[in-house]
Amino acid sequence: MKIGNIEFGDRPVFLAPMEDVTDIGFRLLCKRFGASMVYTEFVSAEALVRSVKSTINKLTISDTERPVGIQIYGRSVEDMVEAAKIVEQAKPDLIDINFGCPVKKVAGKGAGAGMLQNIPLLLDITREVVKAVKLPVTVKTRLGWTADNIIIPTLAEQLQDCGIAALTIHGRTRSQMYTGTADWNPIAEVKRNPRIKIPIIGNGDICTPEDTERAFAEYGVDAVMIGRATFGRPWIFKEIRDHLEGREPDITMDNSWKLDVLQEQLRINVERIDEYRGILHTRRHLAASPIFKGIPDFRQTRIAMLRATTTAELNSILEEVRKMWT
């Protein structure tokens, strides 16, 4: 499968762009464990144009994580075009446009999935961004605004006509947010459309290697993108790749090994940012990681883990957790 001139091989699996999740430390680990492509946290076009420092910092990428995409969102043609030009200077492998974020602070202001209520503007933005940059431009969106308004079969053709290089579809509507079950049937309908020539990437409720295999086999997508199931679990990409390629599960990847990975993520974040913010970036993954499930009376340990303010304090707590498995 190819996007532009980027070759991904057979059945690629991507890390979804997620705010406060896909920082560079996490991306590097996901890449190491087999993610075919990673994305930065999504970036506000308006904030980029205004040169907001925290937003500019999100454009920092490493050659080690390539291929890497930078995702932008906004609600005006002018801001999105200018933001795309700024992003191009950071030299990602592609630029992704977010027409799928459902949260109120984004969609409620007309950006992200909010664009699904203004298709003419959505298409204008896409067309003008494609024209403004030399990098491949891709789009990530949802099925539609509500269950009564599943527009993705038509929208996919319109987006392709704007010149995008690939399309990611999350199998939910905006009104669903992240509730209910992702519906992959409209994604399959898009993929079966003989007019569609660009790669179609499926997203939504991919939590296991078996889910990934089923997405490829039953819905025919060109790639799969994984979001929330990666929280505190960057090794999921190795589990998936081993499964897809017929290898037995790696028995060396026990809980102690996985704890080592999370501690490495903490080290990377602290080194690349600073101790306070590095810990904050890692806490979300520690809170969500499945490795702590099943430990009896873990509540107080979890609270202490999430309140730790120094690397030494947090590592000390994690080492006590390690002893619980021996």
Question: Please, could you describe this protein's structure?
Answer:
This protein is α/β, with parallel strands linked by helices. The chain is 44% helix and 13% strand. The protein contains 14 helices and eleven strands. The chain has helices at 24-32, 45-49, 53-57, 77-89, 104-107, 119-132, 152-161, 185-192, 209-219, 236-244, 255-272, 275-288, 299-307, 311-324, and strands at residues 2-3, 6-7, 13-15, 38-39, 43-44, 68-73, 94-99, 137-142, 166-170, 200-203, 223-226. Strands 3, 4, 5, 6, 7, 8, 9, 10 and 11 form a nine-stranded parallel β-sheet that branches. A two-stranded antiparallel sheet has the order 1-2. Helix 8 links the parallel strand 9 and strand 10 (200-203). Helix 4 (77-89) runs parallel beside helix 6, helix 7 packs across helix 8 and helix 9 packs across helix 10. The radius of gyration is 20 Å and the shape is globular. The model has no long low-confidence stretch (mean pLDDT 94).
